[in-house]
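ARCHIVE CARD
Drawer: 12
Card no.: 0347
Subject: one protein chain, sequence and derived structure
Cross-reference: see card 0346
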Amino acid sequence: MRPMLRLPIDDVLPPLREALSAQPTVVLQAPPGAGKTTRVPLALLDAPWLAGRSIIILEPRRLAARAAATRMANELGEAPGQTVGYRIRFEHKVSKQTRIEVVTEGILTRRLQEDPILDGVGMVIFDEFHERHLHSDLALALCLDAQAGLRDDLRLLVMSATLDGKGIAQRLNAPLIESEGRSYPVDLRYLSKEAEGPLPERIAGAVLTALQNHAGDLLAFLPGSGEIRRTESLLRSQVDDKAITLHPLYGDLQMEAQQHAIAPSSAGHRKVVLATPIAETSLTIEGVTVVIDGGWQKVPRFDPNSGLTRLDTVRVSRASAEQRAGRAGRLGPGVCYRLWSESTQRGLVPFNAPEIAVADLAPLLLELSAWGVSDVNALTWMEAPPAGALAQARTLLTELEALDEAGRITTMGRAMVALPVHPRLAHMMVKAKSWHAEFFACDIAALLSERDLLRGVEGAQSCDFALRIEALLAHRRNGVSGARSFGADPHACSMAERAAKQWRHLLGHSYAPQEDYDETLVGRLLALAYPDRVAQRRDEEGIRYLLANGRGARLDARCGMRGAEYLLAADLDGAGDDSRIRLAAPLTLHDLNTALAHRITKQDVVRWDERTAAIIAQREQRLGALVLSRSSLASPAKERVVIAVLGAIRSLSLEVLPWNDAARELQARVVSLRQWCPDEGLPDLSNEWLHEHLDEWLGPWLDNITRRDHFSRLDLHAILLSKLDWQQQRRLDEGAPTHLVVPSGSHKRLEYIPGQSPILAVKLQELFGLADTPRVAWGRVPVTLHLLSPAQRPIQVTQDLKGFWERTYSEVKKELKGRYPRHPWPDDPWNAVPTARAKPRGT
């Protein structure tokens, strides 16, 4: 072993070894630059409790995993693959000698599924756990479960670089070991106010300023590869490429280019690295003294309601900002330009949200089901998976035949979990075997999993999935020139080809077809993965579509598939109820009946058609929310017709019914008497009750009512009266009579308005001799008298008839006697004869 430079982590190695000898699980908190990633595994290799077994280190990113393994191997004077090795996607360097194996997240999960006891492994280290990737949380939960039930001698070490170590230790009930970092002071520079304009332009401007004012190499953080490419393009024309080299750094970049980005600058050159958050931790980029932080990052957000994941660009957390700034102080004093204000800094959230809180949980639930976990909460989580996302995941996995109705994993599910892809794509690849199309299915899965071959291509072909397949085939036949003939990225083609080859191997399928794709297979295979994203045209322009899951989607107006009756929307932006379709393949009804026959249902639909104002009865073939075909239904069930008519009345309101004066009067009398005398037990006939209970009072009367013009057949008075039995009808006539007999002998109609006393409109002369105001409801409610002139115009409104005779009548008499001389105006109304008649002419 070569002599090693002393690092800050060395000070805590003795207490760390001691803690691990006494405890199965330990948390180590050490800031970037302390040396934890490379120094800790080597220091523990001869621990007695390890007993010659190996150490697995979980590293979130491939570039960091390879770099860490290479660095440790160099420390031992060996090449990777001897004592220290690594295993990442598409690449591994391990041997029988390997005692320390650095792996990426999915690989550890796969190993746990295949070997739950981790035979030959004495320790698992979770590096950069503060990043809280979904696979890290899952792998830790599985390791803790194995530790508790199968391997009490298994050691777990959780290493975190930020200030959440205490919380992690408390959750795991584990000791916390803390290390100081090795960093130099970093001069933080903020903007005086929030910047405006596109981020690439602001980053490019800051890079040029820093190059003029500071020595050393620069590291600039941007949210994604698109922003990196735009910034690189802006800088190419403004920097001297003989003195300054520009290096993009993001996950989809070729590994050779990634290695160049992190390698030391060549003599006489300065380096500018334009990186995504991949450069926040783990990696040491030699020579960096200046960091320019744009302050944004892209995070996946899963919407359980739509089943779609979108990439949101959000502000970084304070922890991420500190990690980024620290990159400038690894080798000496540095400077960090933060392209935001100090007030914005104070408002940043402390830590990034853990991926488990915002991610699609279908892959996690499938892994847990394969592990044998029925109750997710039975495992130890740093943060429990959200119930909504879990429910959506369970529904999806059941639809994909991976889980049975009881939530247990099926034979299909076990075949799916063996494939390191999303369950949707795994289902497609497994089901494709029955069509002898697994070769094509693997290509399709690779195109969806890897970076888009035609990123940046616009126009009619931008959304055409088949074009990606043709580009991949051309690359397979003619290499780089074939890819470029379609405007495709050759590196992206190579990555897709490598992924497809791996999955064909896992499926036990290695031969290549002699002919090109059957184009009709594309949509059908995609439908196996995304049955909920079958889309049906719903406008004349052929842009707007309805998805089988009930949500809306739209095509770009330039897309060549515009106007297709059916599409499979393989990729959507996931924003709102009218998502943009990014990738699609055409479908036919024959394709749907071939691929999704078990999902297509037949059902009889009886509904009210607003256009014709009538019942429509049809037999429909449906795929989720989509109606694939309709035919008339000659004899729909009567009860379904009634339900549809009632639904129409509810939406149209009660006013659509044939109300007449008799029905309204009856309703008002019943409602009024029920309010005045609740002990009478009269039914509630208020509009609110009638609307809410249409099925109860109106439903039995709707036989043969199928059109709006049929409503006129309904006798609402009789229907409402039927709600009262004979005794209630008798009591209604007593307590809320329709008429009152006045002193003149006339029968006068009472007007009932719920919430008011009844109104009696009567000529003044017909009430001579009556002292007391008439009452209803067995004397409980006085009538409101509208006293009329001989011309039937109101003179007085009162509930105090006696007071009227005593105080007001004389004034009324003076005013009206001359106007109506043929009508009696006695001085003593108390003893006058009531009459409805005028005096004969000439008297």
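Annotation on reverse: The chain has a mean pLDDT of 91. The first strand starts at residue 25 and ends at 29.
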